[in-house]
Design a protein that fits this description.
Blueprint: H1 4-18, E1 22-28, H2 39-46, E2 49-57, E3 60-67, E4 75-80, E5 86-90, E6 100-106, E7 111-115, E8 122-126, H3 141-147, H4 155-160, H5 170-180, H6 193-212, E9 253-257, E10 260-264
Antiparallel strand pairs: 1-2, 1-6, 2-3, 3-4, 4-8, 5-7, 6-7, 9-10
This protein binds a DNA duplex (16 and 16 nucleotides) through residues 1-3, 6, 59, 80-84, 99, 116-122, 150-153, 157, 160, 162, 169-172, 215-221, 238, 258-261.
DNA sequence: ACTATGTCCTGCGAGC
DNA sequence: TGCTCGCAGGACATAG
C-alpha cells in the first residue's frame, strides 16, 4: 500500500503521538511472524526502550529507541508496511482488528498495533538502518540523472527500483511520468536531459503534494490515527484506465510492465 | 552487473 | 446467492 507520502504521514503522526513514550512490553501474535529477525530478539530489543523519535526512511518507518538505563545501546525498530500494513495508536480496550500481528504496550497506557492482512510487511530491529537508495526529495538533479545512465530497463521499472530511489512506488511512478510527459515503457537510458528534468521536478511535486494531502487511500491505507489520505482525488493517471485524460481528453491506457500495472496518457506522454 | 519473472499472502469486486 | 478469476500502494529470490 504505502509509498513515500503515506509512510511519511504515518511516521509524522507516530512521532507526534508517541515520541517520548516508553515501550513496556511487546506481544507478537501471528505465526509465522512477519519478522526479519527472531521474535524473541525483537521483543527483547524493544522492551523497556524509550521512543526518542519516529521518522521515515524510504518506505520504512524508523523508531529511534533509547535504553532507559545505561548499559544497553540505542537501537532502531524498523517497520515496513508492505502492501496493506498499518501502524495504529490505540487504547487497550479498542477491538483488536483481524490480522493484528504485533502490539507494543506503552507506558502511557496506549498501544501501538501493527495490522497487515496480506502479511507483506516486516518488522526488524537493527543498530543503524541505511536505506538502499537515494531519497527522492533530497537528491540533486545531477545525481538523479546519473541513476538512469546506461539502464535498458523501462523507466517505470527503474523508478520502482528501491536500490536507485527509496520510496517511489507504483502510484507515484505513474503520476510522475505523466507530469514529465514520458511513457512508462521508455528505456531509462533513452530519456533526454529535458525529460529527466521534467521527471525530476514532476516526481518532487507529486510527492510533496501527496504528503500535504496525507497520502493516497485506495483501499487499505490509513495513518496512525486510522484516517484516510486525499491524494487519490488528485491522481491523473493511476487507476483511471479508460477515463479521459484531464489535460487532452484522450482515454488513459493501462499496460503491464514488470508485472505491475502502469497507467499513462497516449497523447500527453511520448 | 543488470534484467525479467515468479512467489509470497488475503480480500474484494466483476462477471457469470 | 455463490462461484471463479483477476487484481491489489512491495520486495525478494532465482535464473538467464
Amino acid at each position: 500500500m504505502p509509498e513515500l507520502p503515506e509512510v511519511e504521514t504515518v511516521a509524522r503522526g507516530l512521532n507526534q503521538r508517541v515520541a517520548g513514550d516508553v515501550i513496556e512490553s511487546v506481544w507478537l501474535g501471528s505465526k509465522p511472524e512477519p519478522l526479519k529477525s527472531p521474535a524473541r530478539e525483537i521483543a527483547a530489543a524493544l522492551q523497556s526502550k524509550k521512543i526518542a523519535r519516529v521518522r521515515r526512511s524510504g518506505k520504512h518507518i524508523v523508531f529511534d529507541l533509547e535504553p532507559l538505563a545505561n548499559g544497553s545501546s540505542s537501537v532502531q525498530w524498523i517497520v515496513h508496511l508492505g502492501m496493506t500494513g498499518s501502524m495504529l495508536v490505540s487504547t487497550p480496550e479498542a477491538d483488536r482488528e483481524k490480522h493484528t500481528h504485533a502490539i507494543a504496550q506503552l507506558a502511557s497506557g496506549r498501544e501501538l498495533r501493527f495490522v497487515d492482512p496480506r502479511r507483506f510487511g516486516r518488522l526488524s530491529v537493527i543498530e543503524k538502518f541505511s536505506p538502499p537508495g537515494a531519497e527522492p526529495l533530497d537528491i540533486s538533479f545531477e545525481d538523479f540523472a546519473k541513476l538512469f545512465r546506461g539502464r535498458k530497463t523501462p523507466i517505470k521499472s527503474a523508478l520502482l527500483n528501491q536500490k536507485l530511489l527509496s520510496g517511489v512506488g507504483n502510484i507515484y511512478a505513474d503520476e510522475a511520468l505523466f507530469r514529465a510527459g514520458v511513457r512508462p515503457r521508455r528505456r531509462a537510458s533513452s530519456l533526454t536531459r529535458d525529460e529527466l528534468r521534467g521527471l525530476y521536478s514532476g516526481l518532487k511535486r507529486v510527492l510533496t503534494q501527496a504528503i500535504k494531502l496525507g497520502g493516497s487511500s485506495i483501499s487499505d491505507y490509513v495513518d496512525s490515527n486510522g484516517d484516510e489520505g486525499f491524494f487519490q482525488l488528485k491522481h491523473r493517471v493511476y487507476g483511471r484506465e479508460g477515463k479521459v485524460c484531464l489535460v487532452c481528453k484522450a482515454p488513459i491506457k493501462r499496460i503491464v510492465i514488470g508485472g505491475r500495472s502502469s497507467h499513462y496518457c497516449p497523447k500527453c506522454q511520448k
